[in-house]
Write a structure and sequence with these properties.
The chain is of the alpha+beta class. Helix content is about 15%, strand content about 35%. It folds into two domains: about 1-140, no CATH class; about 140-370, no CATH class. It has helices spanning about 1-10, 10-20, 35-45, 105-135; strands at about 145-150, 150-155, 160-170, 185-190, 190-195, 200-205, 210-215, 220-230, 230-235, 240-250, 265-270, 275-280, 280-290, 290-295, 300-305, 320, 330, 335-345, 350, 360, 360-370. The strands form four sheets. Strands 2, 4, 5, 8, 9, 10, 12, 15, 16, 18 and 21 form an eleven-stranded mixed β-sheet that branches. It has a four-stranded antiparallel β-sheet with strand order 1-3-7-6, with no helix packed on it. Strands 11, 13, 14 and 17 form a four-stranded antiparallel β-sheet that branches. Helix 3 packs antiparallel against helix 4.
Length: about 375
């Protein structure tokens, strides 16, 4: 319904100029998306867009040629202005039910009418922007990525992994959002907690700041890598975003410690060993906040697209599931590769955005797991 309304009100050239609406979401591009903030500004910058009752004789500035006045017919009750041509060179403003007419200053009349049109246009603009922000095409999920070069380390892979840390939209392959330096980056291993913040090095990903780190395993065990990113301001949603993220790597077949909890404010506790997974396996977990299960928490799921899949429609980009009353969710992963699970909850306290305003916070509990095909 939103798209049909837009088509009836807009022309292709306007959308092409202000929205990039006709750009297809291509697997090979990370930057194809609709910028709602830019769209809103573009619409507000064009207050006459979609204004009703536009006079066909008026120029772009809304003023009739040759200083013509306008004629308004009124009956016994107040009515909307009615436009018709009286003479080729002038328009007369007629008022009253007696049929007697009087001239009014044409400049002030034009000013009042143009002001009314601008107010109506701004109201329509705001309504359209809200409708666009609620449409599936505008809804693309943010995911904090923490991806190791291998989820299982053995004699064949060597004893070192590279970890890629970025903030992006994995199924849509972008756009990438710039990251500040993470507040925490570390690992829980056989010897306890290890701070790896000093191993982070910044890198450029599609023109935005991301991070990389290398880690060398010294003994068998399961290693829970984790990151707490710097809060990210999302102006399109009017909130700060913090996604507490982890992933598990098994080193040399120990298979012990994969369910260790980092202690984040919000966190997913895996109920299924998060490595050694076949395509089609069911992944289950508990969403916890402050250590307690979150009943009926909403969990978003995305596959990290390698460019081989083009979603047939927007709802295929992000899968959405709800946990049960005990905070437990489950999802069967239909394709080989990396899968991200993001449980999103409201933060208890607001944060200050870059403009110094207190705004709500989206806290995300994320875990990344990998599936492989048989054969």
């Amino acid at each position: 319904m939103v798209l049909s309304f837009i088509k009836s009100r807009c022309v292709d050239s306007f959308w092409g100029a202000h929205f990039g609406w006709h750009r297809a979401l291509k697997p090979g591009s990370r930057n194809d998306r609709i910028d709602l903030v830019g769209a809103s500004r573009a619409l507000l910058a064009a207050p006459r867009f979609g204004a009703p009752d536009a006079d066909p004789d008026a120029g772009q500035d809304g003023v009739l040629p040759d200083g013509e006045e306008r004629r308004v017919a009124q009956g016994g009750r107040e009515s909307r202005p009615s436009w018709r041509r009286s003479t080729p060179r002038k328009r007369i403003l007629m008022t009253g039910s007696s049929g007697c007419g009087r001239r009014q200053n044409s400049e002030s009349t034009l000013h009042r009418r143009d002001h009314m049109k601008q107010r109506q246009s701004v109201a329509r603009t705001l309504a359209m922007t809200v409708a666009l922000s609620a449409s599936p095409m505008a809804a693309v999920a943010h995911f904090q990525e923490l991806i190791p070069s291998a989820e299982i380390v053995d004699a064949n892979t060597g004893n070192q992994v590279m970890l890629a840390v970025s903030f992006t939209h994995p199924m849509a392959r972008g756009p990438v959002m710039p990251m500040g330096r993470p507040a925490q980056f570390g690992v829980l291993g056989p010897t306890g907690r290890e701070d790896l913040a000093d191993s982070l090095r910044s890198t450029n990903l599609d023109g935005k700041t991301a991070y990389r780190a290398d880690y060398r395993f010294r003994r068998p065990g399961d290693y829970v890598f984790y990151v707490e990113p710097a809060p990210y301001w999302e102006p399109g949603e009017g909130r700060m975003i913090v996604h507490y993220t982890k992933t598990v790597v098994d080193a040399f077949g120990a298979e012990a410690g994969w369910d260790a909890m980092v202690g984040f404010p919000v966190e997913i506790e895996p109920l299924v060993r998060p490595y050694g997974l076949w395509t089609g396996n069911l992944f289950r977990g508990i969403v916890r906040k402050g250590g307690e299960p979150v009943p009926f928490a909403e969990v978003e799921v995305e596959w990290r697209n390698d460019g081989s899949v083009r979603p047939p429609a927007d709802p295929f980009i992000t899968q959405v599931i709800k946990a049960d009353a005990a905070g437990v969710f489950a999802y069967a992963m239909p394709r080989a590769g990396w899968w991200g699970f993001a449980a999103l909850v409201e933060g208890d306290r607001p944060m200050t955005n870059p403009d110094g305003e207190l705004v709500p916070v989206e806290q995300g509990a994320l875990i990344w797991v990998r599936t492989r095909d048989m054969g």
